[in-house]
Amino acid sequence: MMRLTTTARTVAALSLLALTAVTTTSSTVARAAGLRSCTVKDLQAKAPIGMTVIEASLVPAVGSTPAYCQLDATVSTAGNDVGVRMGLPEAWNGKFYFAGVGGFAGSFGSLTPGLDRGYASATTDTGHRGIVTDASWAAGNPAKVVDYAYRGTHASTVAAKALSQGYYGSALTHSYFSGCSNGGRQALMEAQRYPEDFDGIIAGDPALGTLGQVRRTVVYQRMLSSPDRFVPVSKVSLLARKTLEACDGRDGLKDGLISDPRACAFRPETLACTAGNGPDCLTAGELETVKAIYADQTTPSGAVMPGFPRGHEDGATGWQAWLTSATVPIPGPSGALEFSNPPAGFRFQYGFLQFLAASDGRPIDWRTFSFQRDGARLDSTSSMFSPTSPDLSRLRARGGRLLLYHGWSDPGISAFGTLRYYESVLKQAAGTRPNTDSIALFMVPGMHHCQGNGPGPNTFDMLTALETWVEHGTAPARVVAWHLTNGIVDRTRPLCRYPNVAKYSGTGSIDAAENFRCEPPQGATGPGGRP
């Protein structure tokens, strides 16, 4: 392993320094000079109608985060109050940043990425409080459901922008949204429903709503139907190891990464046991589950629920965290398995079907769900949760930009779903040059769910790329990502704007981004980029 001297903090600091040099002007510094009152009374006087400031305090500077005024408030919507948290830095750059939140929300996203750059920053709990895997708050609360689905983010954005302008006494120059997972879903909802809210939007590993949750249900119905269909951690590791052995060099470089899973044609059937169960093979039941995870599923109406790409299934943030669990489930009275420590994917599909999915408000049992019987109950709510409209014409008309990214090895939300959405936008906007003007996609080899997870270079700065695109008209072609081991950067690699992929130049370290070019892929065709 090559140990570079650059630490994660140094990389972030350099990125921030470059950003500040480009975007901070003397006028914005002068505009931000001096302390402002950070009391509930004074902030309330600057708040828009319908926004109630609850508490406020000055937070001193720590490290790269400047001193700022933190406030918690609520914004009134029809039948509900939506929580908002804001950070208003003393040294303001004139811009606004909104942070998405994951899972079923109920808590606030981190304001640090915005505050570190001098943004007036905000986030929302989307109208309820709770842990991200719990959706019980939705029972009997239709207003909270609507706010979680899309309305709460918009209402919070409008109010927070107004308070920011009142606090600083100046109009915002630009506004940006960034979120991953459900935060990515929020991002797409904003782009589709409220394109006037933001000049630039980052949607990472976006959850695409109802069909993504139901696809999990279909897999768990099979996986947990009997003990022989569960895939334990040791077998997931076997699968990942054999897949990597077969596909690592398909991009022309043996580097421990499957750079483009579309070129990986490894067949898990080659691991089938021939003489009973064993540590180096998959039983018929295990193989059936693995194939169900990889394969596309189709609804009776013909809608495709994409399967997962092959590669990098193992590790603490891989399948065991999202799909299969690190703990072997226990047979219940019926013989079917029951999780003692459910993975995140199970918790989300369970909560969705119990509390959110059905238009009549009645829970749906995940074990007995069927499209034939229950599909109609999902129809009226699906559009509320599912940001799948390919029509971004209003965002494009106002010069807005949408930057998508997705980890190829994401075990929580299929990367193929994001590819399909991207391709649907291009198809819908044919003739309007959307690939140049309004939308860009970056696929991240070896990254699990959201940044910082998985064996590939999984940490990167998309906000600087988006700012440069929005404010200077330069569309991003590549973004450098890095991987950390024990706090040390041990690999950097360019992320290339889709459809391009990173290709080794043939000289220099394979752990250094400067030795890679972004080039068109070879042999990856078909809907969603499937082989």
Structure, described:
With 531 residues, this protein is of the alpha/beta class. Helices cover 34% and strands 19% of the residues. It has 16 helices and 18 strands. It has helices at 8-23, 26-32, 40-46, 112-115, 142-168, 182-193, 210-223, 233-247, 284-294, 319-322, 344-356, 371-385, 393-397, 415-428, 434-437, 462-472; strands at residues 51-59, 68-77, 80-89, 95-99, 120-124, 174-180, 200-204, 297-298, 304-305, 330-331, 337-338, 401-407, 439-444, 459-460, 478-485, 488-496, 501-504, 516-519. Strands 1-2-3-5-4-6-7-12-13 form a nine-stranded mixed β-sheet, sandwiched between helices. Helix 6 (182-193) links the parallel strand 6 and strand 7 (200-204). The longest helix is centred in the N-terminal third of the chain and has 27 residues, at 142-168. It is globular, with a radius of gyration of 23 Å. The relative contact order is 0.11. Residues 1-33 and 525-529 have low confidence and may be disordered.
Percent of residues in helical segments? 25-40%
Average pLDDT, rounded to a whole number, is 91
What fraction of the residues are assigned to beta strands by DSSP?
15-25%
Categorize the overall geometry: globular
Number of helices: 16
Q: How many distinct beta strands?
A: 18
Distance between the termini: 32 Å
Q: Point out poorly predicted stretches.
A: 1-33, 525-529
Instruction: Using the CA coordinates, give the radius of gyration.
Output: 23 Å
Strand order of the largest sheet: 1-2-3-5-4-6-7-12-13
Class inferred from helices and paired strands? alpha/beta
Give the biggest beta sheet.
9 strands, mixed
